[in-house]
Design brief:
It is built from eight helices and nine strands. By secondary structure, it is an alpha/beta fold.
Length: 294
């Protein structure tokens, strides 16, 4: 597939793009900052400007694409990861504006160009736990895609709005639009510093539902989405199979989730942020993790 990948220079994208390239996809990175990865063109695009989005999606991405002499090639898929990626980085209204407007522009252009596969990055924060003022516990565990999404913060609000926007475009066009509620993304080099903390201070993982997703496995998830057609509008949690703390699940429940309904057994070190739907419908099978460290 020829893939229009927004935000490819970010924490998740810089791991996902090489994996997609290795899997045979031709990826163009759309970002304000270049990735500079061999074989991956970089286009600097302000995604809040609809004209720039439409123009970039209709244009050649590199000199090599001029050689056939058949005009700008069409994109087969869009992966939209670009965003202000968290709270506390800019003013709340700017986070909301950039994230919602850029997502509308990308979806609008993609569907008007007839692209039938669109993958949108949403977030674990939509469940209203991560950036809550004070402690908010899940309505039940493990947290799955049916869990209520009632956030208190501008970042998570923008992601909920983006999900509704995506659903509207899918209803209008019938395209496959898959929304990924991505848990806390961890890069391989981060484990050396994080692993001791996760073992010694499990309470610091409460806001992430004691879960995480390895950046490489997130790339695998995107590839699974690109290879799976015909699902229409779908929302998928994205996490690794195991929790991000040294405690076993029974002890996590005892210490942090006493009284929270347990809808399915959670054994050993299984994740409290269910990825079962992605495993069942997409063949998602994460293979990296922090427990691989000695």
């Amino acid at each position: 597939m020829r893939v229009f990948f927004t935000g490819g220079s970010g924490k998740a994208g810089r791991h996902a793009i090489p994996l997609l390239q290795k899997a045979g996809h031709q990826v163009v990175n759309i970002d304000l900052v270049p990735l500079r990865h061999p074989g991956v063109p970089d286009l600097r695009v302000d995604l809040t400007d609809a004209g720039q989005v439409f123009n970039a999606m209709a244009s050649h991405a590199s000199g090599a694409e001029l050689e056939p002499g058949t005009g700008a090639p069409r994109y087969d898929a869009v992966v939209h990861f670009a965003a202000i990626p968290s709270m506390f980085l800019t003013a709340d209204n700017e986070t909301y504006r950039v994230n919602t407007l850029s997502t509308f522009n990308v979806l609008d252009a993609a569907t008007k160009f007839g692209i039938r596969k669109i993958i949108i990055a949403s977030s674990e924060t939509t469940y209203g736990i991560c950036f809550a003022d004070g402690e908010v516990r899940p309505a039940y565990i493990p947290v799955d895609e049916d869990h209520p999404t009632i956030p208190q913060d501008a970042y998570a609000m923008s992601k909920v709005v983006n999900e509704v926007t995506a659903r509207s475009f899918q209803a209008r066009t019938g395209a496959d639009i898959y929304v990924l509620r991505i848990n806390n993304v961890i890069e391989p080099h981060e484990y050396l510093d994080l692993a001791p903390l996760w073992r010694e201070r499990p309470e610091i993982r409460r806001r992430n539902v004691f879960a995480y997703i390895d950046a490489r496995d997130l790339g695998h998830m995107v590839d699974c989405c690109l290879r799976t057609d015909g699902l229409g509008y779908q929302v998928f949690n994205v996490s690794n199979d195991d929790s991000s703390v040294g405690l076993d699940s029974a002890e996590v429940i005892r210490r942090f989730y006493d009284g929270v309904p347990v809808r399915r057994p959670i054994k050993g070190h299984q994740t409290f942020y269910s990825n079962e739907k992605a495993r069942r419908m997409l063949g998602f099978s994460p293979s990296h993790g922090w427990r691989d460290l000695p």
